[in-house]
Amino acid sequence: MERRRNRHRAGLTLAAGVLVLAGCGQPADGKDAKTGSEASAPAPAPAPASASAKASAAPLKPGEVRIGGEVAKPYTLTLADLRKLPQSSAPVKFASAKGDQEHTYAGVPLYEVLKTAEPRFDQSKKNGQLRGVVAATGGGDYRAVFAWAELDPGFAKSQVLLAVSEDGVPFDDAAGPRLVVPQDTKGGRYVSELNQLWVGVVDPVVDGAK
Questions:
Q1: How far apart are alpha carbons 74 and 67 in whole angstroms?
Q2: Average pLDDT over residues 193-199
Q3: Are 71 and 118 in contact (CB under 8 A)?
Q4: Could you tell me where the beta strands, DSSP code E, fall in the chain?
Q5: Against a cut of 0.85, is the pTM above it?
Q6: Strand partners, 93
Q7: Are 129 and 139 in contact (CB under 8 A)?
């Protein structure tokens, strides 16, 4: 009989010990047992950077062209805006998938449009603008790239145009302007339905490849 009482007392003591140990892991007041500081829930994961970047870019309306990238004054323009600017004309000949083409385009020099956005070239570098590039995007995500020296009249002999008409026929406002490259013998860089002009520099790509 005495043995049974001793076993019963031992069982109660063991159970009490387990309860005390279990309570030591996290106090009832929500404080960490080791530091005494308030326990907190895990912080939510930050949103991907690409998501915030996409949210900040307003969708373009038909016929609009966004000028951005490494520029101080990004802006958006339309065919109507281009028609209000001083016009230049360019007779051109080039080969295309539809055969040889010969047209006369009227429009605004691309250099003038980009200069308004004030590209941020590194002036501490000799001829820092020669590190610049321009990517032109058109309908169907078609894209072509230019070196800044091809557009700057201080280096180039001919002017790339943002054309508003072909052979005297105005482009439809909803279609936007067409990029015209008189010095090219093929029409690959004649970007139609132009909607974006991005200005950048090659340094991050070239230096990152070292």
A1: 5
A2: 97
A3: yes
A4: 65-69, 75-77, 88-96, 99-109, 132-137, 143-147, 161-166, 169-170, 178-180, 196-201
A5: no
A6: 102
A7: no
